[in-house]
Amino acid sequence: MARAERGKATAAEIVFDHVWHHYPGRAVAAIQDLSLTIPAGEICVLIGPSGGGKTTALKMVNRLIPISKGDITIDGRSVQAMDVIELRRGIGYVIQQVGLFPHMRVEDNIATTPRLLGWPDEEIRSRVRELIELVGLDPEEHARTYPSKLSGGQRQRVGLARAMAADPPLMLMDEPFGAIDPITRERLQDDFLRLHQTIRKTVIFVTHDIDEAIKMGDRIAILRPGGLLAHYDTPENILAKPADDFVARFVGADRGLKRLSLRTLREIELLDAPRDAERSDLPSASEGTKVRDALSVMLTSGNPSLLVTDDEGTVRGMVTIDLITALLSTAERSAVS
After folding, report:
1. Domain range spanning residue 324?
2. How far apart (Å, rounded) are the C-alpha atoms in residues 173 and 203?
């Protein structure tokens, strides 16, 4: 059976319906009455302080941790009613330390779940090559390489490819980029967001980093200690109007600046550039640059103005520190109102 016939949906709606989890011997539940809906094809980030239950909530979806009370459904099907092996084979799972099989080459690591599902060898080979390319590696160079010969970032890419191998509608990602250096981490974040525009899976993503949550999430669920849901909404809405003082403190006093990281220069009204802009010494940035990053460029260069160019390098306009300050003031007023 072809892949397109096996998996009819590319993403699945996930619903937590008054979910609880009690660890044996603990007086307080790790997750308490958690209810939220994750629309199909969106990235939902779970974040909170230590003891907030974010990893517990994630692992209840594939029943690595049992549900004490309530239910979790995937496209209307209760995870508790599904065969646990069937459930886990239908979910991509990516963890911080990757968990690749060290005795297996990259191609065999990626092929693990399709082989368990009985895919034909030719289809497995095609899927493996497709995924190696999709995550930014070279099939000729990396397919027959052992994990020990790869960098940390490359291993994480292989782990991501393995999680997507059977084309699951849902992916669980438990601090997937947490053990990687900052430069590689940012590159992997950007690459995954680009990849998600293509694959459009439903993703539950655990992190302890609020900046990563804002960057990665279509929606963010902030959990209090004890697994209580404090705020569930889009990054923009959480930064604009935190539900309470706990959420406001958690996202940080610089939430106005953080809101600037949600917009690109393409999304704001630019000033007219000088006539001789191409010959000027003004710094420049592309239209896809985040407004917050543009502000950083101006502060670093010591120049209060920045040219904005399209993908071909043609100047489209100009942004200034004063213009961004006005945007920031508007964001702060909106947060207070």
Report:
1. 260-336
2. 7
